[in-house]
Amino acid sequence: MGNDQHRSQTTLRVNGTPHTLTVDHRRVLLDLLREDLDLTGAKKGCDHGQCGACTVLVDGRRVNSCLLFAVTLDGCEVITVEGLGGDGEEPHPLQRAFLERDAFQCGYCTPGQLCSAAGMLAEAAAGHPSHVTDPAAPSGAAVPLDRAEIRERLSGNLCRCGAYPRIAEAVEDVIP
Fold first, then answer.
1. Roughly what angle, to the nearest 10 degrees, separates helices 164-174 and 110-125?
2. CB 3.0 to 4.6 Å from 64: which of 48, 49, 109, 168, for a disulfide?
3. For the whole model, what pTM was predicted?
4. 64-112 confidence digits (pLDDT tens)
5. DSSP one-letter string for 106-164
């Protein structure tokens, strides 16, 4: 059998396009995206799930792609920074806000920051509380996003350049 026992066919829908690949069981989603699909937006930062540079959306939830084995995601929908804008004709509102607010410096963390912000906005709209959400807030109701909520919810994404104030401003610009 050789290596075949350590590989499985996996189908992922990435940025709207289905991809069926035979994947080594040890291959993480980040490496599959970058090396097999040439989607290099998500970055390899710490490779331990601590910096957020590799953040993408899987079935609408933000994840650290450096920690997820690709074979466990068979049938899932993956959105990377390259797919945030949908068909690619127009940038996502968050991408526009990041540009307008100059919410990046070196840009290394920006793809992860953008995917995390998109996921965070959906989580708050769905009523998922954070550590700083008022405990008296009604359960399941959309969580209003003030600066403290934004900072807390994006705290898993590190920026070595310290662009945090501009990132928070950019997110505030797109809150409905």
1. 40
2. 49
3. 0.94
4. 999 999 999 999 999 999 999 887 788 999 999 999 999 999 999 999 9
5. S-SSHHHHHHHHHHHHHHHHTT---TTS-TTSPTTSPPP--HHHHHHHTTTS--TT--H
Write the CB contacts of 107 (distance below 8 Å, at least 6 apart in sequence): none
Q: Which H or E element spans position 13? A: strand 7-14
* Angle, helices 110-125/93-101, rounded to nearest 10 degrees: 120
pLDDT at residue 31 in the model: 98
Record the tokens describing residue 86, joined without a space. 């949908």
Closest CA to 39 of 72, 84, 3, 7: 84
Sheet of 17-24, strands arranged across: 17-24, 7-14, 77-79, 55-58, 61-64
C-alpha angle 109-48-150 in degrees, rounded to nearest 5: 45
Q: CA 94 to CA 159: how far, in whole Å? A: 17
Of 119, 79, 102, which is closest to residue 173 (Cα–Cα)? 102
